[in-house]
Amino acid sequence: MRELQSNFKTCYEERNWQSDILTLFYYDLWGDCEDASVLGIWALGNIGIPAKEMYLYDKESNSYHSICVIYDNKIMISNNLLLELNGKDLLKEIKLLNFYSGYDKIEEK
After folding, report:
1. Residue 43 CB contacts under 8 Å (≥ 6 apart), including other chains
2. What is the pTM of this model?
3. Residue 74: its pLDDT value, please?
């Protein structure tokens, strides 16, 4: 899982749309954060681990970042990274890791 996700190549798209899994493989795993979540959800599902897409929001800059999280919050995927977490307070833990520290809200897509 970690190896597959590490092959994801992040690019920032002009328009905001989410690829399906076939399109991601066609473009050699290039995409934005939402596409990385699609890849993570698909890959985790193939090994029997249900996952969901969530958004981290930054009110000040009016921006968001898509992540993939398994339902017990113990694994988070962001672009080409797979992080193991303790599963308690997801947003607090993300900030403690100094990972996207500017985000102040998290919610499920």
Report:
1. 1, 4, 5
2. 0.87
3. 92
